[in-house]
Write a structure and sequence with these properties.
The structure is a single chain. This protein is of the alpha/beta class. It is built from twelve helices and 16 strands. The chain has a seven-stranded mixed sheet, with helices on one face. Helix 5 crosses helix 12 and helix 7 packs parallel to helix 8. The chain is globular. The protein binds 2-acetamido-2-deoxy-beta-D-glucopyranose (NAG) (7 copies). The site of one 2-acetamido-2-deoxy-beta-D-glucopyranose (NAG) has 4 residues, from loops. This is Trichome birefringence-like N-terminal domain-containing protein. Its main location: Golgi. Belongs to the PC-esterase family. TBL subfamily.
Length: 456
């Protein structure tokens, strides 16, 4: 990062890593400002970083949308706990290499895409044996590969290059776990591909899934490090928890069931959560206040999707409070992955979708009608409000992915069965405009994760 949060480092282990970092000398003016800000942050109970970072961050009311457009209900502002603000966690985040008193902050999620054929893709599709055929677009016949060669350029800094060796050293004797749905599985796979390029010997690594496919573990033997994926599309217990057979239309989650899956996350040093798309089955969502299997009518409650989502998000935070030591472990949350199923959103003829799209959307303000801003707002309000005491690093990949209508797997995928010739001939119906080709967009998500791990 040239002009980023990266200025100096005292940790010797990472000194080599910070080739680009300049040693910052603190002028009396900078020291004075820092003292002032410390006082200010003390008075207002604000985290210093939040305070400095607020410059560019839109006020949460700016996230308001035309809710009638998506037809979503506005979550009740008066709901208990909704507006209460907790004191942010004050400690130093583990793995951070930037100075605690960093005087510059960069919003790495605000920027633009730059063509970069020299450095991207970061690995080749055929070199990573762990990509499932659902995401190997080239092997499935995609004719173009321009979607692989883009670099994310934040407005105010440059991302550090992903150094797989550095990442593996950091994960030595540790476990990194991705928890969520198939999009998080894609990000997990991308991370494994990024790391395995630094482990040439096949004997030095392994990749194993549990018999029910719920839990997949990549091991870097020489580092005693694992990168894992755990299927829990709602984080809570749900009727879509079977990692293979989960095509369910009447979705439901069990209230207060975070420990059901949570017990399998214990011991992870870095957790990366996501959950979003599965909630979007309608405007309302069904909650069970009893066992899912019994599905008793009197134990079902219908609430707005946003309220249900907020409930699960808060339960996840509570699990994190109860089970993670913030001095030694880190928690990430990846924001919603946009879909491109409606070509009309970007001026295409009715019926079009991501199929045959090889260029990205240029409009910096673009937002697809099939993505719910209301859900983003729920996350932001909780993280800034009653969840502020949990140091979750928010990976805000939504807007930067919103531009990438070119990066989906479309019809170039194989899941369970290859698409039939009839399906391939009808891309308007069968194109997958949800998942992303690998290598591709999700490698950038991991470059951002990497950045935020070391420069939170
Ligand atoms: C909200 O969206 C609806 C449906 O798309 C549209 O008719 C209406 O004009 C929009 N309202 C505003 C204030 O943008
Ligand atoms: C996510 O990033 C985009 C682009 O910088 C920004 O417009 C948006 O407000 C951010 N959302 C949240 C919830 O932080
Ligand atoms: C990557 O990290 C390793 C371990 O910290 C370091 O030795 C190496 O020089 C780094 N590579 C680059 C290209 O920065
Ligand atoms: C390997 O890593 C695990 C944590 O993932 C740790 O409990 C164990 O002690 C490590 N083994 C060795 C030999 O260091
Ligand atoms: C979920 O459970 C909590 C605690 O038992 C209860 O207060 C809340 O009303 C329940 N939520 C729903 C939607 O039923
Ligand atoms: C975390 O570190 C701080 C400061 O070093 C210390 O006061 C606190 O007790 C630690 N918390 C835990 C759970 O170890
Ligand atoms: C795909 O796009 C190209 C130009 O961008 C166009 O010529 C071609 O007809 C399109 N193919 C289909 C099947 O829509």
């Amino acid at each position: 990062m040239t002009k980023a949060a990266v200025q100096s480092s005292s940790a010797p282990a990472v000194a080599a890593f910070l080739l680009v970092a300049k040693k910052a000398r603190f002028s009396p003016f900078v020291l004075l400002s820092l003292l002032f800000m410390l006082l200010f942050s003390f008075l207002y109970g604000e985290q210093l970083a939040t305070l400095i970072g607020q410059r560019d961050r839109p006020h949460s009311s700016e996230l308001d949308v035309n809710l009638s457009a998506g037809g979503h209900q506005q979550p009740a502002e008066t709901e208990a706990g909704w507006t209460s603000k907790k004191k942010p966690w004050q400690g130093r985040l583990p793995f951070a290499v930037n100075e605690e008193d960093e005087d510059e902050e960069c919003d790495v999620f605000s920027g633009s895409w730059v063509k970069d054929e020299a450095a991207h893709p970061l690995y080749r599709e055929e070199e990573c044996p762990y990509i499932p055929p659902q995401l190997t677009c080239q092997a499935q016949g995609r004719p173009d590969r321009g979607y692989q060669s883009w670099r994310w350029q934040p407005h105010d800094c440059t991302l550090p290059a992903f150094n797989a060796t550095q990442m593996l050293e950091t994960l030595r004797d540790k476990r990194m776990m991705f928890v969520g749905d198939s999009l998080n599985r894609g990000q997990f796979t991308s991370m494994v591909c990024l790391l395995q390029s630094a482990i040439p010997s096949p004997e030095a690594r392994s990749f194993e899934a549990s018999p029910d496919q719920q839990h997949t573990v990549f091991t870097a033997r020489d580092y005693n490090a694992t990168v894992e994926f755990y299927w829990a599309p709602f984080l809570l217990q749900s009727n879509a928890d079977d990692a293979v057979l989960h095509k369910i239309s009447d979705r439901t989650v069990r209230n207060g069931s975070i420990a059901h899956h949570g017990r399998h996350w214990e011991g992870a040093d870095v957790l990366v959560f996501n959950t979003y798309l599965w909630w979007c089955s309608g405007l309302r969502f069904r909650i069970m206040n009893g066992p899912i299997e019994e599905a008793k009518e009197e134990e079902m409650v219908w609430v707005s999707t946003e309220e249900a989502y907020g409930m699960a998000f808060r339960d996840m935070l509570q699990w994190v409070r109860d089970n993670m030591d913030f001095n030694s472990t880190r928690v990430f949350f990846t924001s919603m992955s946009p879909t491109h199923g409606k070509g009309q959103d970007w001026g295409d003829a009715p019926g079009g979708n991501c199929y045959n799209e090889t260029a990205m959307i240029e409009d910096a303000e673009y937002w697809g009608t099939d993505s719910r801003r209301s859900v983003m707002r729920v996350i932001r309000e909780i993280l800034d409000g009653d969840g502020a005491d949990v140091p979750v690093t928010f990976l805000n990949i939504t807007q930067l992915s919103m531009y990438r209508k070119d990066a989906h797997t479309s019809i170039y995928k194989k899941q369970w069965n290859p698409l039939t010739p009839e399906q391939i001939a009808d891309p308007r119906t069968y194109a997958d405009c949800v998942h992303w080709c690998l290598p591709g967009l999700q490698d950038t998500w991991n470059e951002l994760l990497y950045t935020k791990l070391f420069y939170p």
